[in-house]
Design a protein that fits this description.
The protein is an alpha/beta fold. It contains twelve helices and ten strands.
Length: 335
C-alpha cells in the first residue's frame, strides 16, 4: 500500500459525498424552511400613513394573506420621506420571509430625490409580486375652466395665457408632479407647479378654486368626479380604466406612447429564500384573481395587477430609469 493511501484515513468516495452534501446544504435548508414556513406572524410595512391607497391595498392584501397562510399579518405604517424610512427599515430586517413591504412608486423613486435615502431600490430588496396599478388623472375645476373638456383644450387655454395657469399635485416629486412635467416637456407648454403636502389638501384647494388643475391619483379624485365637482380630462395609463371608461388616455389625445401609472408591489429583504418568495407570490396571484379582491380595490380606484417577481424587477428598473431622467432634467430634489 502506498504511503499516501495510509495517510488518508477517510476514503476518497467519502470526501466526494461530503463535498456534494456541503454544496446541497443551502438548498436543502431553504427548501425545508419553505415547507414549514410560516410558523409565526408576518409583518407588512406600509411606507405611508393610514387611509391612503397604498395603506388600503396593503390591508386588503394582508387580510387575505392571513387567511391563506393561517398566520396573522400585522400592518405597520412607517411614514416619512416618501417611504424612505420604511424602505431603510426593510434593509435591516431578517431575510426570512416574515417581513415584507408594500413598495409604492414614490418610494421606488425616492433615492433620486433624497441624497441619503439609505437604500438602493434595485439592489437592496427581493421583488415578490406586483399587487395593484393606481391610475392618475388630470382634473380641472369645471367652474373655473368650463370650456376645458379635454387635454388639447387645456393646452390651448394655457398657451393663450402664458404664466397665468398653475397646477397642483400631492407634493414635490410626487408621481403627479413628475407625470405633468413629462407631459409639459412633450407638449411644449408651461404651467407652474404649486405643491401641497398630500393629496387631500391639494384636492381641497382644487375644489375651492385656489388652483384650477391637478394631476391626482384616481383614489382621491373619484368621489369628486362622481359628484361633478371635478372634471377629469385625461388618464395617464396606456389604456382607459374600467372604473371610469369615459376618460380618454393622454396617449389618445395626441401623445402617443405616454405611459404614467403609479403602482404597488411586495418587496422582501435581499436574500430571502427563493422558495419562500415563490410561495408568497403564488398566494398573491391567487388573491388578486378573486373577484372580491378586485372589487374591493376598485372601490378605492386601484386595479388588481399581478406580475411575478421577474416582471416586477424589470418594472422597478424601467421606472427607476425613466422617471430618474425626468427628475434630473427638471432639477427636482428634496435636498
Amino acid at each position: 500500500m502506498r504511503n499516501s493511501d495510509r495517510s488518508d484515513p477517510v476514503p476518497r468516495a467519502s470526501w466526494r459525498r461530503r463535498a456534494l452534501w456541503a454544496l446541497a446544504l443551502p438548498w436543502f435548508i431553504g427548501t425545508a424552511g419553505a415547507e414549514t414556513w410560516p410558523v409565526k406572524p408576518l409583518k407588512l410595512i406600509v411606507p405611508f400613513p393610514p387611509g391612503g391607497p397604498t395603506d388600503t391595498a396593503s390591508r386588503i392584501l394582508g387580510q387575505k394573506l392571513a387567511d391563506r397562510l393561517k398566520q396573522p399579518v400585522v400592518v405597520e405604517n412607517r411614514a416619512g420621506a416618501s417611504g424612505s424610512m420604511a424602505a431603510a427599515q426593510l434593509t435591516k430586517a431578517p431575510a426570512d420571509g416574515y417581513t415584507l413591504m408594500m413598495l409604492a412608486t414614490p418610494t421606488l423613486l425616492a433615492p433620486h430625490l433624497y441624497k441619503k435615502a439609505g437604500y438602493d431600490t434595485s439592489r437592496d430588496f427581493t421583488p415578490v409580486a406586483t399587487v395593484y396599478d393606481l391610475p392618475i388623472v388630470i382634473v380641472v375645476n369645471p367652474t373655473l375652466l368650463p370650456s376645458v373638456t379635454d387635454l388639447q383644450k387645456l393646452i390651448t387655454h394655457v398657451r393663450a395665457r402664458p404664466g397665468q395657469l398653475n397646477y397642483t399635485s400631492s407634493g414635490v416629486g410626487s408621481f403627479g408632479h413628475l407625470s405633468m412635467e413629462l407631459l409639459k416637456q412633450m407638449g411644449r407648454f408651461e404651467m407652474e407647479h404649486v405643491p401641497y403636502k398630500g393629496s387631500i389638501p391639494a384636492i381641497t384647494d382644487t375644489l375651492g378654486g385656489q388652483v384650477p388643475v391637478m394631476y391626482a391619483d384616481l383614489v382621491g379624485a373619484l368621489p369628486h368626479l362622481q359628484s361633478g365637482k371635478l372634471r377629469a380630462i385625461a388618464v395617464g395609463s396606456p389604456q382607459r380604466v374600467g372604473v371610469v371608461p369615459q376618460i380618454p388616455t393622454i396617449a389618445e389625445q395626441g401623445f402617443k406612447g405616454f405611459d404614467a401609472v403609479s403602482w404597488g408591489g411586495l418587496l422582501a429583504p435581499q436574500g430571502t429564500p427563493k422558495a419562500v418568495v415563490q410561495r408568497i407570490g403564488d398566494e398573491v396571484q391567487a388573491i388578486l384573481a378573486e373577484k372580491e379582491t378586485q372589487e374591493r380595490l376598485l372601490t378605492v380606484g386601484a386595479l388588481a395587477r399581478y406580475q411575478p417577481a421577474e416582471q416586477m424587477a424589470a418594472r422597478i428598473q424601467g421606472d427607476y430609469t425613466k422617471w430618474g431622467r425626468v427628475i434630473r432634467e427638471k432639477g427636482i430634489s428634496f435636498d
